[in-house]
Each structure stands twice: as structure tokens, then as C-alpha cells.
From TrEMBL:
Sequence ranges assigned to domain J in this UniProt record: 2-53
Protein name: Tetratricopeptide repeat protein
Gene3D superfamilies, A to Z: DnaJ domain, Tetratricopeptide repeat domain
Entry-linked Pfam families: TPR_16 (PF13432), TPR_8 (PF13181)
PROSITE patterns from the UniProt entry: DNAJ_2 (PS50076)
Amino acid sequence: MTCWDIIGISPTVDKKAIKRAYASKLKKHRPDEDPEGFKQLRLAYEEALEEAKFYHPTQEQSPPQPSPVPAAENTTAQAAPHTQREIIDSDRVSCEQAVTELQQAVVELYEDFNARIQLGNWQAIFDQSKTWDMEVLQHIALGLLQFIGRNPFIPSEVISYLENQFAWEENHSWLQQYFEEDFLRYVLNRVIVCRWGLSYRDIRFPENSDLETVETYLRQRELLTYLLDAPEDDERDALLSALQGHNVQDPELYRLLSSLYLNEGDIARALQYSEQLNNTFSGNIDGHLRSANLYYRQGYFSAACSAYESALAVDEEHPLALKGLAACYLQRYDLFASKHLYEQALVQVPFDMEARIQLVQINQKIIQQGLEHLEKHPKDTREQRYVAEGYLETGAYHEAIQFLLPLTKSGFFSKADRDGEFHYLLGLAYEAIDQPEAAENAFNRSLNLAVMSGGNGYEALVKLGETAHANSKFKWAEKMLLQARHFNPESSKVLRLLAGSQFGLEKIDEALENINHAIRINSEEHHSYTIRAIIFMATENYAAEAADLKQVLEYCPTCCRHWHKLGLCLLKLQQPDEAMTAFENATLYNTARQDSALQWIQLALGTGNRDRAQLALEALERAEADPAQITIFKETIERMSSEVANEPNA
């Protein structure tokens, strides 16, 4: 069995993929339960990192065929409608009849609990509301608000959907004509806070439970949330007895009971209900996380590990489960495994401060342990690499350089020096302290040493290509990146940089092919859309350019530069109103943008939009534009105002 078989991926040069695979396998090979498997996994990881340096594809990868990248679509499947009523045609039936039919549909839906909690059933009734006659719409909006006020047990996603359909919050003043203020405040508050309410998913009532039984149980369950912090008394005990007497299997009830006993300090009973939640609803991640947290607090780290692993079996990328498992490994003082799990948690939540702080502390310990080990074993290249990486990851770049320089001097014949890895790390350190020439020299040396030792030098190739691209040395960048693509044809970063370099060389078709491939691999990388938008602009495909710029702004809504570009693009598409909005947003996020304010005011004046021209003028003043120019625009707006005032019907 090869190292690749053990970590569970195909041979690759991508270190991030190797680290992800290793972190995933850690869940199945714990040091306390499978020490031999854990040791074998660690060795396989190290071996895979080593083999990645020398990996060469067996044959040249054929370039992917260009194909259009479809726009994102909402493919979320909805539950089958509970009732297939014919859509109300308000032109065909009377308002009274339409309202009566809709109200009856809502009542029937509510009385069937399993149907009530399916959003798709509500959508089947109300998705056509925008086409209804205004009188029908108003009657339904009023009736439905009253219904929600009298029937509190409706899922939050349903209430949010209905609020989007009928906009009760926005029409508060109109609703005051029909409802008492206390009632209105109560219902609208439910609309606002519903997202934090109890869930209705996965509740299993005994067969033949009628509506009254269901409502009674839900009402008692709601009351329990108010008694979580209450002292033990007869009222609370009676409520608990009544809830358990319903014989309902409900994940929320088990969660509430676990919280109740945890608040009382009764860990054993809190664990009992967490485990009951896990056993009854194994796919509910909350129970596994609760059990893991309780075990961890008691110091039962092996049991906590098992619970976190069960959570990761439900969602292998859950950041809390990854951090919890990392903390368990840290308690066992396995710094290396803990570090990798925290790194995977940061992939999911990049700004998680707890994970970042833990990584800094772990790296500091790795550095300390590594230096102590190197005093006894000064030529251990693996420990040297750990120390160097620790310095880099904690931001100690000068210390990294001081540590690496002796290891990269000619005549130091360590294995790491021969394959260029230490030179690569040295290049990263120089790059971080803004010494580009020293960084480039180190990356070049790393590549040369890697090739001399039979390696691929993939990481150095990517860095050299990235540096050359940033310095507009497109020919050299293309050469480096084509070699990198040979070793890893599915790297969206390499394809993106390659596309940018080929565009700089006016190889438009090749650039478009590579950037499309990059987007197919990673559709959430906004830099790829930026490059493709530039290509579309150069080829005068303005509709496609606008679509990509809007995609970029989904990820970077405050980027004034892209708002300005979108405005220029919309101008070419002869969409002046949308262009004005884009230029307005550009000035909103950067008040110094005179060019955006100028485009905005010229468009507003050109289309006779005096109000927007006045707003644009204010933006131009904030940008401290030429006073003479501002005076001219002021006079133009004043003339427009005078002309409007002098019109006969003004």
C-alpha cells in the first residue's frame, strides 16, 4: 500500500490537498485507539509531501475543451406540495371567493403538522401572490397576519417566506388601521425573532395524534425554554413530566433537557439526553457536538474525540467539530495533528480568532521543541523544516531568515537543501518583508536545485510565475505557469495566473480557455471573474463583462474600482440608469473618486434627472473636484430647475 493509498488521494503536487486528506484521515486513526495506524498515517503524510516534490504526470495532460460556464442557478429542491390547488385567477373568480379558498387552504395545511413544516407546501399556495388582484392581496395579507398571531407554531423559514411575500414590516402604518397596536407589535416581533425560535424538523409524534395534542405539546415545549434557568420546583417538574408523557421523539426537546440539566450542574443527566439525541437522530450534528463538549469539560478526551468524529461524519467540514477535535489532540500534546485540524477549521472560517490564536501558540511550541531537538540532532531536516515553517506561520520572518540562511549556503549538503525546499521557504520570508529581488533569487535557486535532484519544483514555479505576472513579464510568467500546469492541471490559481499572462501576450483564446477552466474548478474565486471581465472588455463582449463584474461585486461589494468599471460597461450597453447607480456606489465607497462622480453627473444631466444630478454634484464636491467645473454644473442644475418652474403645468 502506497502513501497515497493510506491518505486516500491520488498522487499530486498540491500540498493543500495532501494536508486536507491527512486531516480527514486523523478522524479514523486516533493515537489512543489505533497507535499503529496513527503512526502509519503520519509517515504516509510525510512521504506524500516528499513524493509531491518529485511527482511527474505519466503523460501530458490534454487541455480541457472550452465550454461555457453557466450562471449560478437555485437548484434547491422543495418538498412536494401538500395540496395541488388550481392557481387562483382573480380575473375569473370574485375577490371573496378567492380569499375564502386561500384561507381554507391555509387552515387545511396548518392542521396537518407534517405538511405544515414543509416550506414547499406554503410556496404552492402563495408563490403566485404577485399576480393577484390588489384587493385579494390585501385581504390575504391581513387574514394571514391574524392567522399567524393566533397560531404560533409555524416554522421560522415559513414565516420568513411569508414576510418576503407580503412585506408586513414595511407596511406597519397601513396595518395599524386594522389591528390593535399590542397585537401588531406581538406578531411583527415574532416575524423578526422567528429565526431564533425552536425548530420543528424531525419531530415524531405517536400515530393518530390529533391537532390539539400536537399544539399542547408544542406549547409546553415553548414554555420549557423560559424555565431553563428557573430553580427546581413543582411547576417545572410537572411540565417535564407532561412533556415526557407525550412520548414524542423530538431533537429540540432532548437538546432543551440537556441544557436544563447542564445549567443545574448535573452533567450525567445532561449527557444522557445528548446521547439520546445522538441515538435517535444520528444525523443531527448538534447532539454530537453537545456530547463532545460535555465530555471535554469533564476531561474525558477520548470520549470527546469520538463524539467530535461522529459530528464530522455528519459534516466533515464543520468548523466547531474540527476545532473541538483539534483541542482534544492538543490535550494529548499531539501538536502536529492539532495544528492540521485548526488549519482546516480556518479554511471554513478564515477569521476565526480562536483558531488563529491556537495556531500561533502551537507553532511557538513546535519551534521550541524543534530547536531543543536540533541541539541533539542538528542535521534532522524534518525538524528544521518544522521550525522554519513555524517561524513563517507566526509572522517571525526575520527569525526565519536567520534560521534558514545557514541551511541554504553552498556546501551545506542536507537533503532539504538539495531539493530546494529551504530556499523556497527563504523566498517566502523575503517576500513577506518586501524584498522582491532576494525572494526571486531564492525561488530561482529552489527551482534549480529541485530540477537537479529530479524534482518538479512546482511551488517555486508557481511563485516565479506569480512574481513575473505581477511585474508584467508575461512571457516568462507563461513559461513558468505552463510548466506548473503540467504538474497540477486542476489548480485554479495556476490557471488564473496563466490566463492573465496570456491576455498580456494577446493570446485571447488561450486566456479565455484557461480562465473558464479556473472558474469551473472554483466558482467562488472572485479574482477569476475579474480577469475574465477584462478579457470580455477587450473583446467588446460587454454583456458578459457586466455579468462577471456583478459576480465580483457579490464577493467585494465595497470595491469602488469595480463599481466604476461596471458603470462604464453599462454605459456601453446603453443602460444609463443602471450606470448611474454603479457610479453612485463607486463614490459611496470612495468619496475621493472624481471620475465616478463626473460620470454620474454627466449622465444625470444628459437624461434630465435633476434630483440625481444634485446628488452627483454633492459627490463631486466631496471629491474636491475643480471648483470651476463644479460652478458650471451648479449653473446647469439651476437652469434645469428654472425651466421646470416655468413650465405651464409646474
